Fold:
Amino acid sequence: MITLDPIGTVRSKYTDPSQVPKGTGAKHDAEGVLEIRPEFEAGLTDIEGYSHLYVLWIFDRAEGFHLMSQPPNADRPHGVFSTRSPHRPNAIGLTVVELLGRDGPRLRVRGLDMLDGTPIVDIKPYLSSIPVETLRRGWLGEAERRHS
Ligand SMILES: C[S@@+](CC[C@H](N)C(=O)[O-])C[C@H]1O[C@@H](n2cnc3c(N)ncnc32)[C@H](O)[C@@H]1O
Structure:
């Protein structure tokens, strides 16, 4: 077993999973705050220089997992590790957010898909060096083409 100590909490306008946009083409532009615990504030030093951040968090309101499931807009079931389902063996969420500003231990961000109160376990700078034309989007790419 691994024990994680959250570094902070998401403050989001979403209080229920049904409020979060879902499916191909869903826009994630919700703004909110990553409230970091005061004892970790020094770890935010120099974070203002980044436009985007990876946020690692816990699906604290998801129960259990399914190795196969059919996400919204999919035409067949897919394995959990080829989806972003909340119902995974380790309930870890990953969201890329735009950093709008920092007020001490509070990071104002855009692009939240987490519920209010979600525990944050880590933050890292987003640095993608993979040219977009080399990315394959798997079954999701097929679904996007079907729905475009
Ligand atoms: C499809 S998941 C993707 C999350 C993240 N971007 C990822 O890829 O890991 C997003 C959904 O997780 C659900 N969700 C958000 N916060 C949650 C929480 N704290 N516990 C359980 N489910 C949550 C919402 O229903 C939301 O629509």
Q: What stands out?
A: The first strand starts at residue 8 and ends at 11.
